[in-house]
Specification:
The complex is a heterodimer of chains A (320) and B (336). Chain A has 320 residues and is mostly helical. Chain A contains 14 helices and no strands. By secondary structure, chain B is mainly α. The chains are: A mainly alpha (320), B mainly alpha (336).
Chain lengths: 320, 336
């Protein structure tokens, strides 16, 4: 920040565009000029943060027992609107209620973190498998690499939703962890590929050769030397994976194959479709979870784009 | 170019068959891990609706024998694989005596048609937008508008479908709400049917296009930026070639080919997304078929449709992978 003050004459003489250029060059010495302070990343994190915080704080502020059937009057719109039967919404149910007497606000407070949780657990498990397989394949090479590449190529071609539908139709009663692990079973190939490719390109680089010469163990080279360089990629891949996992979970939920006992956003949309909420113009029933999910995905996209720019300075430069 | 090297071909074919084999095995194995058997489950359902089923033990035993459920599992497995090869998935429980293959034969053309049209449009729009996003001559306003439009990309197609359905079918009444053509229109090559199909297909196609064009645009932009730094770009500029000519001949043509490989990887997600969109619009394709089967507990249909969709996806990826080196001479098949 103080860098601009040190050379006032030069700055004033420069054309505006060049001044920006100078600032950027000088900014390298500025502690705030780190790629991690990426506006997209921050915006996305704020969006996701607000949704999660709403889920946590909401439990203390709002009575979540209202998320169960027959706890509230039926089909009430949000206050200020009138439903097809002429009933007006009240502030007792700020987001309205649906046709089995659940309060929408309570449903969302409980449902939003659930949908998110499935994604994060599935992505974490998938990522863990991906890191292990990717490093093994990239580092050991040969037969092992060939085999890992083969199974990840095979798994990535299978439209996972199809297999998940088959499984869920049979199990019917699922809890969040079961669902997350089943989704994770299809979430590992893309991190595996990404890490393998990065490890392959890094393996020949100077510092890894150096570490090898100095007698570092394979484990040390993998996790002490190479891993820190992979962190932005890993984050980007993790977010991408979580997005995919949430997408799969929402898909299953909207088909009525999600957890039955606890509210989820996708499950709410399923209920709304089943009850023809669209035709009855009960927009608050299907619309609110839809908008919330859409916002969640936008937040995840922004975080992902942010990490991409951190990992890939070329993108950063061209977007400015 | 030249002929495809044999070991590359073998590897791709191997992946293709392994995918199908793995998917078929998972689909077969999972019901057998779950407790109970389909016959008992069906009799249970009959008992629930009818109150009491006479001689149910005899019926169960008879049917088990008839369907070969008393044979050892390996025998059942081999028989199952044999049936798959002939695309015999058995009978639909809900629409008996229609076979699963017949149901799929009715639904598949709708799904394929919709997918093909939506994907083609998406590919064209996405690559075009990505190209002009990276081009230096593009007006500033456009450069800011496209990333804004790309926000849609992150939204799952099923959510986009709900919004489009509400706005354009329910509120504005521009498009029909459900189905793939109007009742009372006779399917065939007449104008009434075709226009009805287009009208019903617009919103489902739009929900897929809207949410996936940004993926292409982003990929294209990344590719263009990479090409921007190549030496031949400097040469082209130094030669004084027109900017648009450079964009088209030097950048787009080089950037678009790797996009095709990216397409192969995302195909699975695309198919899954479309299944859900079809279900929202009650479009007569595989999505609605699967949803009806879930509601009816029609497991044979779920198995059949899932298997066919997996095979179709794997086949498409195989074709892309094999054709790709023929389109792009820079690729050396990686078979050495």
């Amino acid at each position: 920040m103080s860098t601009a003050d040190t050379t006032p004459e030069t700055v004033a003489a420069e054309a505006p565009a060049e001044r920006g250029e100078l600032k950027r060059t000088m900014g390298r010495f500025n502690q705030w000029d780190t790629p991690w302070l990426n506006p997209k990343l921050i915006a996305g994190a704020i969006i996701i943060g607000i949704i999660l915080l709403g889920g946590i704080v909401g439990r203390f502020v709002w009575n979540t027992d209202l998320a169960y059937t027959a706890s509230s009057p039926l089909n009430l719109p949000p206050p200020g609107f009138v439903n097809t039967r002429g009933q007006e919404g009240t502030w007792d149910h700020p987001l309205g209620t649906e046709n089995s007497g659940r309060d929408m606000l309570a449903v969302i407070i409980l449902g939003a973190p659930n949908s998110f949780l499935i994604g994060v657990v599935a992505a974490t498990v998938g990522m863990g498998i991906g890191i292990i397989l990717g490093f093994t394949a990239g580092f050991l090479g040969g037969r092992v690499d060939e085999f890992i590449r083969l199974i990840s190529d095979v798994t990535i071609t299978i439209p996972s939703l199809m297999v998940l539908i088959v499984i869920q139709t049979l199990i019917r009663q699922v809890e969040i962890p079961t669902m997350a692990i089943m989704i994770a079973a299809f979430a590992w190939p893309s991190p595996t590929r990404l890490i393998r490719a990065q490890v392959l390109s890094m393996r020949e680089s100077g510092y890894v050769q150096m570490a090898k010469l100095s007698g570092a163990s394979t484990f040390d080279i993998m996790f002490r030397e190479m891993m820190p360089n992979l962190i932005p990629y890993l984050f980007a891949s993790f977010i991408g994976n979580a997005t995919g996992a949430i997408l799969a979970a929402v898909g299953l939920e909207t088909l009525g194959l999600g957890p039955q006992r606890i509210p989820t956003l996708g499950g709410t949309i399923y209920d709304a479709i089943q009850a023809a909420a669209l035709l009855r113009n009960m927009w608050w029933w299907w619309g609110i979870p839809t908008i919330l999910l859409a916002t969640m995905f936008i937040g995840l996209l922004l975080i992902n784009l942010g990490f991409d720019e951190i990992a890939n300075p070329r993108l950063r430069r061209s977007s400015q | 170019m030249g002929p495809i090297p044999r070991n590359y071909l073998m590897r791709r074919l191997g992946i293709f068959f392994l995918t199908i084999f793995l998917a078929a095995t998972i689909i077969w194995l999972i019901p057998r891990l779950a407790p109970g058997d389909p016959i008992t489950a069906m009799i249970d359902r009959m008992t629930r609706t009818a109150g009491y089923v006479e001689n149910s033990d005899v019926i169960i035993e008879g049917w088990k024998e008839r369907f070969g459920l008393n044979d050892p599992l390996p025998v059942q497995y081999v028989r199952y694989l044999g049936n798959l090869v002939t695309l015999d998935f058995g009978y639909s429980l809900a629409y008996f005596p229609t076979t699963v293959s017949q149901l799929i034969a009715q639904a598949l053309p709708w799904t394929l048609g919709l997918l093909l049209i939506a994907v083609t449009i998406t590919f064209l729009i996405g690559n075009f937008l990505g190209a002009i996003l990276a081009w230096t001559r593009t007006p500033r306003l456009v450069r800011y508008l496209i990333p804004l439009a790309m926000i849609f990309t992150s939204i799952p197609s099923i959510l986009a479908a709900l919004f489009l359905l509400y706005i354009f079918a329910f509120l504005l009444n521009w498009f029909p709400m459900l189905g793939s053509y109007e009742l009372g229109v006779t399917p065939g090559l007449n104008l009434e049917f075709i226009s009805s199909v287009i009208k019903h297909g617009t919103l489902p196609a739009l929900s897929i296009i809207l949410v996936s064009f940004g993926y292409w645009a982003l990929g294209m932009r990344g590719m263009m930026i990479t090409i921007e730094g190549e030496d031949y770009m400097h040469l082209a500029r130094a030669k004084g070639l027109k900017s648009f000519y450079i964009l088209y001949r030097y950048m787009v043509r080089n950037a678009i080919l790797p996009q095709i490989t990216a397409f192969a990887i995302t195909l699975g997600t695309l198919v899954s997304g479309q299944i859900l969109v079809e279900y929202i619009f009650a479009y007569k394709g595989m999505g609605t078929l699967i949803y009806d089967a879930i509601v009816n507990q029609d497991f044979a249909v779920i198995q059949g449709t899932s298997f066919i969709l997996i095979v179709m996806t794997a086949l498409a990826v195989l074709i892309i992978d094999l054709a790709y080196p023929l389109i792009d001479p820079r690729i050396s098949h990686g078979g050495k």
